[in-house]
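User: Predict the full complex structure for these chains.
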Amino acid sequence: MRISELAERSGTAPATIKFYVREGLLPPAEKTGYNQVSYTEEHVRRLHLVRALVDVGGLPIARVRAVVAAVDDPGTGLQEVMGAAQRALPGREGAPPPSPSSLAAVEELVRAQGWAVLDGNPGVAQAAAVLDGWVAMGRKDLFDSLPEYARAAEVVARADLARVWPDAADRDRSAETVVVGTVLGDALVAGLRRIAQEHVARATRPTTRPATPTATSTPEEPS
Amino acid sequence: MRISELAERSGTAPATIKFYVREGLLPPAEKTGYNQVSYTEEHVRRLHLVRALVDVGGLPIARVRAVVAAVDDPGTGLQEVMGAAQRALPGREGAPPPSPSSLAAVEELVRAQGWAVLDGNPGVAQAAAVLDGWVAMGRKDLFDSLPEYARAAEVVARADLARVWPDAADRDRSAETVVVGTVLGDALVAGLRRIAQEHVARATRPTTRPATPTATSTPEEPS
DNA sequence: ACCAATAGATAGCAGCACTATCGACAGTGG
DNA sequence: CCACTGTCGATAGTGCTGCTATCTATTGGT
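Assistant: Here is the predicted structure of the four-chain assembly.
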């Protein structure tokens, strides 16, 4: 198929497709002439993958390139593909490194949960950075809630992996599954969390501010 | 205090502080002379809040402005502050709108969970967009896992709100708590999810690919 | 034969988050 | 009193990212 058809089927502008090929997000199409190439169904699904990572996952182009490289390299095992996807996720790159105390807190949490984890896991630094932000705001009560969050995270992780193992025999397919699941999973959990937050906020009827009847007046705006 | 002290205490360059004041992320300091102003402790904590939202939460400046405006406006109730924080989170703005079928699936999930939620909730569109990305990749099995994710999301949401109600009497303090909790909570859950993923992947020993012994050879790299 | 479409290369552009520079002045040590 | 460092506010500039526009040589379709 030609570029216009690929563009139409993926909802992506031809110029953008060319750009993706240049950037290595999309493999070059097979040449059939001086100015004719032939895109395949493989390109369609790869383009869908790229757009999902960019649009829904919010990944920058460079990260997407790293991820698809891991998917395409048959020498990369599923665990490493998952690692690549994890490292690709937008994770506090401009931020200062996490403090040792927060790192220690996270590591203690990991131990308390009975988790086994290597040092390189980016989640550790990310969680520690969150704790740092929290204490910088003068709050400390988050530590008590950590096990609750950790338990929820484990439930999510089990659901994640339950979706991968079924077709673990097909390496390419499951590599894609791992990537999409890891990246889009963050967005899914975040979205569901927003819905659940509103539900819980409405359900537990917070005595909508016990002692300060001011400012409750403004007409209810959808949260 | 003068700008250099504020810069030092917050780890932010003076030029950046000036920029934030211009952009309305930080209130202007009180003038004490032609070229002398006096920053307060309030500025320190506000700057910490802004940096946390930017560095850890990854929010763009414009979103941070909207969030702090909601926090500062005493006429904005806590529910609306939470709504502002939710809408501020990076959520698929460049992406195409979610398909009706995915929206319907999310709404059915919401009903099945017994959740009550208004139309404007950005989580619905976000979750639907994730489903769209998923089906665009030719996978449909995600729907079966949705209730699992929803349950985990509710656990998280309950933990979120349990941290807010305690000091719901202090509107300003709890407004900050809501914002930081909503924004940093996403990052925290995401980080813990990465750790849990690695743990579960190692613990359940995926029979590391049942029928395809190829490509397992590369030396174990920390995922 | 004609014309729209294509490939590939290069240049340009808009947005974002800062950062650098400037001129006028203030506060402080000597 | 006076040099000198620090400060304020304003404006302009920078580096990066993610495309988009333009150009030329060529080609398939009618």
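The radius of gyration of chain B is 22 Å.
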